[in-house]
């Protein structure tokens, strides 16, 4: 019988849907949600404890009391589910990654209060154990059929959600092109129908929706000669510069290129200081704050960057343009076409 910690099977990133050969071999496509990977274990018999395990093996059921209560009420014993934890913001009426992070870091009494404000949902995409029997060596297609039967036989309702899946390539492309405009859906996962569940093995393929877009480099951390990451901004409809996100820490080659642009464009660092009209996350102090209307970074992002607010997805630095003007940068509210490149 499976007991935590169980190392989950992983996915490797790819840039495109696999070709005809892979499709002929038989694959399934699942929607990839922007949440926290988790495994849920129900006890083998009465008196046991429902366990919730993170991707890294930590047990965090004390942070998800609503999920534990739902498992005790709805799920059969001897079960192990693999899936994605997401959180619904009842006020904003949308999935919220920020609320998910808050809940994941809150324990005990605080967790009960947050569960009311931000209820958790578990999007199940794999069944690792059923009625105490391990299923790791069974092919994905068989595990998926058992998972669907589980939802049907037990009439599972919220917070349990069955992850959408299709074997139709056209439907998968539609998901990638259209559903990724929906908050919380960041791409698709591709899984061979005959694959076993191999903990730690990167046998699945993950494709995220990415569009090219341009943003003003509004600030950096580090120094102009040794930048660490870029804080990105855009001008809103009133002409105010707003923070829309940040890059992941720059790789050495990207950091060198940024440093060359910064020092070449502004010897001696004569930048114009400015404050964003919207705060960036919880960090209120940057090592270097700067604004230069002609300094524009072209990055690879998803379309959430055109919605304003805090951009939480990693942005891949590609290049800097010093010949752009403020008018070249798409403004908020310009629509998806403004983010296409």
Automatic annotation (TrEMBL):
Pfam families documented for this protein: DNA_ligase_A_M
Entry keyword set: Ligase
GO molecular function: ligase activity
ATP-dependent DNA ligase family profile domain segment(s): 113-240
Annotated catalysed reactions: ATP + (deoxyribonucleotide)n-3'-hydroxyl + 5'-phospho-(deoxyribonucleotide)m = (deoxyribonucleotide)n+m + AMP + diphosphate
Cross-referenced CDD domains: Adenylation_DNA_ligase_LigC (cd07905), OBF_DNA_ligase_LigC (cd07970)
PANTHER family for this protein: DNA LIGASE 1, DNA LIGASE 1/3 FAMILY MEMBER
Family indicated by similarity: Belongs to the ATP-dependent DNA ligase family.
Designated name of the protein: ATP-dependent DNA ligase
Source organism of this protein record: Streptomyces virginiae (Streptomyces cinnamonensis)
């Amino acid at each position: 019988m499976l007991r935590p910690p169980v190392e989950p099977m992983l996915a490797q990133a790819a840039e495109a849907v696999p070709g005809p050969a892979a499709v002929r071999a038989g694959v399934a496509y699942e929607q990839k949600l922007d949440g926290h990977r988790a495994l849920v274990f129900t006890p083998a018999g009465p008196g046991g404890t429902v366990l919730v395990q993170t991707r890294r093996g930590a047990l965090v059921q004390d942070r998800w009391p609503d999920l534990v209560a739902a498992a005790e009420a709805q799920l059969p014993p001897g079960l192990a589910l693999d899936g994605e934890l997401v959180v619904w913001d009842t006020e904003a009426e949308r999935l919220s990654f920020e609320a998910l992070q808050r809940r994941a870091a809150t324990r005990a009494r605080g967790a009960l209060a947050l569960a009311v404000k931000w209820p958790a949902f578990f999007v199940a995409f794999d069944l690792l154990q059923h009625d105490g029997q391990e299923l790791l060596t069974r092919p994905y297609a068989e595990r998926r059929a058992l998972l669907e039967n589980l939802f049907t036989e037990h009439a599972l309702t919220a917070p349990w959600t069955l992850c959408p899946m299709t074997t139709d390539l056209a439907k998968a492309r539609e998901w990638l092109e259209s559903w990724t405009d929906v908050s919380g859906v960041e791409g698709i996962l591709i899984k061979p129908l005959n694959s076993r569940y191999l903990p730690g093995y990167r046998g699945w393929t993950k494709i995220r929706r990415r569009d090219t877009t341009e943003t003003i480099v509004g600030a950096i951390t580090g120094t102009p000669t040794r930048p660490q990451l870029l804080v990105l901004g855009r001008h809103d409809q009133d002409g105010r510069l707003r923070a829309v996100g940040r890059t992941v820490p720059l790789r050495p080659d990207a950091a060198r290129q940024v440093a060359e642009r910064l020092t070449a464009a502004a010897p001696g660092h004569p930048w114009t200081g400015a404050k964003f009209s919207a705060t960036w996350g919880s960090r209120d102090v940057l090592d270097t704050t700067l604004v230069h209307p002609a300094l524009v970074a072209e990055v690879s992002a998803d379309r959430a960057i055109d919605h304003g607010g805090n951009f939480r997805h990693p942005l891949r630095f590609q290049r800097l343009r010093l010949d752009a003007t403020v008018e070249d940068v798409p403004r908020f509210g310009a629509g998806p076409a403004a983010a296409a490149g």
